[in-house]
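Late entry, evening session. Most of the bench is empty. Finally got around to the prediction I had been postponing all week. Sequence below, unchanged from the version circulated by S.P.
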Amino acid sequence: MTLPVPRAAAIVRRHLIAAVAVTLAIVGALVGVEFSLASAEADRVTRAAAARVAKRVSTALAAADFARDDIDPAALDARLEGFFAAGSVARVKVWHIEGDTARVVYSDERRLIGDRRPFSSALADRLDDDGVVVLDVPDDAEHRFEAGGGELREALIAFEDAGGAPLRLEVYVPVFRDAWVASTLSVYVPVLVGGIAVLVAVLVPMSVRLARTLSAADVDRRLAIEFGLRSRERERLRLGRRLHDDVLQDLAGSALALEALASAPDPARLRAIAITLANDARTLRGIVDGSASAPAPRIGDALSDAVAPAREAGVRVDLDVVVDREPDATTSRLLVEAVRELLRNVIEHADATRIEVSLHGRPDAVALTVTDDGRGFAPGRSATSGHGLRLLQRAFADVDGDLTVASNADGTRVEARLPAETADICCPAPATML
């Protein structure tokens, strides 16, 4: 019986699919975490940069006299050209404090000049305490020209112009969050993907070997179950033969004897019939409760039965059995099952014309040799790769025995050795040998 083992290509394909899924999940999680971290870091850096830019811009504008009505916005634009060109400033507003209101006296966006808003004493206190106040840009009418132009932070600073007029500078600085995320991921992602690729390359061969081992173990388990079922059926047939040959014959003979004794009672014959029936009752009771089994035949007779199917298939089988004493039941059962399965595989796969089975026994051990003139194993295939042979080798090793196989184009030779007496074991499952 040959059961399929997963192909390496299928295992590698499943691993690659799993690796891609894991990589995408990890990269997605990394992007999410990094976006959150980068947002916080970008905001921190932007606020610090906004404060520095606001101080520099206020220094650049402090030489102008914003109280004059003829102030030249273009000249002020020229002073700030470097900030705009570098992308460090997105918008500039200069507010002139006039009592309880503030009016825009300069902006690079001309439509804002002349806008007014109430003077905030709370903001003034914060400016006095911190020097520079950095805020998020709200989406309102005052910031109508900044909304939608990318994320910004506004920095406010108090200063005086050349004439000593109190002013408020409002500088809008862009937040470069996307650049932070892209910069970080450009370092992390290649390392992460490369590391996972190396890990997959290392684990795939190991997983292929593990999958094959597990699959082979599953094959062994199923073969062992199949063998157990066949062994049970053989035991049932042996018990049936015992019932037919012994118990039923005794019952039939006892019935005839009792009928004859009905007219001429004979106490001695009645006692003999009673003993026979008592023995048969014990036999039946043992069969019912599972404590009885059919007596094992002699090893020579058992091996003759085991090689009979090969002879019936037209293969010449030479059987040579020489034992000093009968091996115990467990050893005999293992030897017979080994011969039965080896010959079955030879018949099915080896295309042999002759098989030699030799069993030589000494007081302490028995040696079994099975040789055929078939085509042997396929080129390049290990002699121990068959599930049946592996199970036989394991069963022999479990009772301190051994089994070796040699095969070439001229045939196969199996040599096995077992102690003459062994502990009770479960015989191995049959399997395809070649």
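Two things to note before I forget:
Residues 180-289 form one domain.
Residues 423-434 have pLDDT under 50 and may be disordered.
Will write this up properly tomorrow.
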